[in-house]
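@channel sequence for tomorrow's demo:
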Amino acid sequence: MDSVWTPDRLAGLFGRLQDQLPDAVELRHRIHREPRLSGDEADTTDAVLDVLGLPHERLPRGGALVRVGPADGPSIAIRAELDALPVVERNDVAWRSRSDVMHACGHDVHVAGAVAVAQTLQEAGAPLAMLLVLQPREEVLPSGARDVVDAAAFHRHDVRAVIGVHVQPRLAQGCFAATAGPVNAAADQFVVEVEGRPGHAAYPHLTADPVVAAADLIGTLQHLISRQVDPTNPTVLTIGSIQGGNSPNVVPSAVRMTGILRTFDEHDRTRLHRAIESTATAVAEVHGCEARAEVSLGAPVLDNDPTLATAAAIWLEHAGLAPAPPHRSCGADDFSYFCTVCPSLMVFTGVGSGRPDEPGLHHPDFLPSDETVGDVATAMLGSYLGACESVAGIDLPDAETFSRYTRR
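structure tokens (generated this afternoon):
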């Protein structure tokens, strides 16, 4: 660890960060132009490692770890997600996606910002080692973050805290939210198979119609949320797909539904798992059908460390980002797995313009401006410095020193 950190030298990190942004934006364009789906991120990983040119360690199921700073001792990790979504882009920019895959969740911005921070700390020195986590498969199960926290390589770096930053169109551009406590829901996927007795649509009394049973089940499942959950506990159940039959005059033999359950309360989470299974069986039986429900555990609640949140907010505000009101949503992010092994913080940075019809995350028109690469990088660097102080015990100058280095 480099212990000689004067106020001017430490504040100069943000100036050096600005110098890295043109190259970071170019990397963002490169990644955005050639996106890769979850589980197929090797090309994206190679592109990032090529730009960094630093020693690294590949992870067994994709992604990589890049350590910047002292080769041993404690570290602060910064997570950047590699994967894109199966969305066809509609933006008209020179660097739009060349395929039917798109970075519609801002992961290209996150990666570019994290690389800018890593290069800054590599050039200027780091108060404490930074561990860049290039994480695969944030968008699907099995979770890439869970693989990282289960990897021996991750724990060899004595990680004292993990920082994540995510763009958020519900916040104005230039703002940030470092909110203590739960900020994202647990998200568990489920599949329901309803089996009936097929036949001619003109003779419904001779059939057991799984379509009618499934329609009844969809409404009944919503009642689990509205009538069996404390309304002060945010909870959402969504049926995202339904398939059954292929002809208008045939009662099909089966219907398959998939959905997702989002909860903030662990008791609600486990109780609703059982309720989904028992409700599916009971409703199907009323219609003379049979049903099987299977729930797959997803990411747990994302619970921000209060100490990290407080420390980061001080640094980010003095670095030029404006504090926003606390931000929570029923969205989910597998960053929550990092919260289960060490103090962790997810910071949301605004990319919104205030337009009521503005495209949101996962939308084919979603395209944060290149300026947001700098906002994300600033949020990562500021949160890293806050973690160095609050969790790792590094003695740094007062954050107020940096107010004159604001970018605004």
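heads up for whoever presents: The radius of gyration is 24 Å.
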